[in-house]
Amino acid sequence: MEIQKYIYNYDYNAITTAVYSSASVFALYPIVKIYLHHNYENFNLLPSHKQYYVVKNLIKSSMLLGLCIMVIPTIVVPVYMNGTWSNYWCHRLGILYTTNDYMGLLLVDKLPKTTQDHHKITTILCVISLGIDFQTSTLGQMLFVYTIACKFLFSKFLFRSKTFI
């Protein structure tokens, strides 16, 4: 009976967010790469796969910074003030958190194995989370709090990119 409830409650509409955010990230790769090519001489000395790794981390850093801001009015304030969790926002922000990871798997060659594993796990958890009711699932709430904490690591990805350029 629980699997039927899960399938019935699955947020199929959130997949639209995944499509749009994936297309946006895909479109950002050449823009960021061209910018770095014209403005950072050291970037041009890197092998192609490292250039894409730098681009991926800069995009991820920017996305995580944006998510840090977005999560406050959409999740943190409603949970703190009313104890309500918005499935709509939890699902969509989860997708935005994960988009750069699965796009990195597709677009960046020679990713370290640990990075590949991380990206695969976050993608799988994101797909699963679209069926979770965050209002009633303590595990779902804990998972989201963990991802909120991870969003604040945007500076780590910025630093990773800057070490190469």
What do these coordinates show?
This protein is elongated. The protein has helices at 2-9, 14-39, 41-45, 48-82, 87-107, 113-129, 138-151, 154-164. The protein has one domain (34-164). By secondary structure, the protein is an all-alpha fold. The protein starts with a helix and ends with a helix. Helix 2 crosses helix 4, helix 4 packs antiparallel against helix 8 (154-164) and helix 5 (87-107) packs antiparallel against helix 6. Helix content is 83%, strand content 0%. It is built from eight helices and no strands.
Q: Would you kindly provide a brief summary of this structure?
A:
With 165 residues, the protein is mainly α.
The tally of beta strands, per DSSP, is 0
Instruction: Name the helicity range.
Output: over 70%
Task: Give the overall pLDDT as a whole number.
Answer: 90
Helical segment tally?
Answer: 8
Largest sheet: none
Distance between the termini: 54 Å
Write the layout of secondary structure elements.
Layout: H1 2-9, H2 14-39, H3 41-45, H4 48-82, H5 87-107, H6 113-129, H7 138-151, H8 154-164
List keywords for this structure.
mainly alpha; elongated; 165 residues
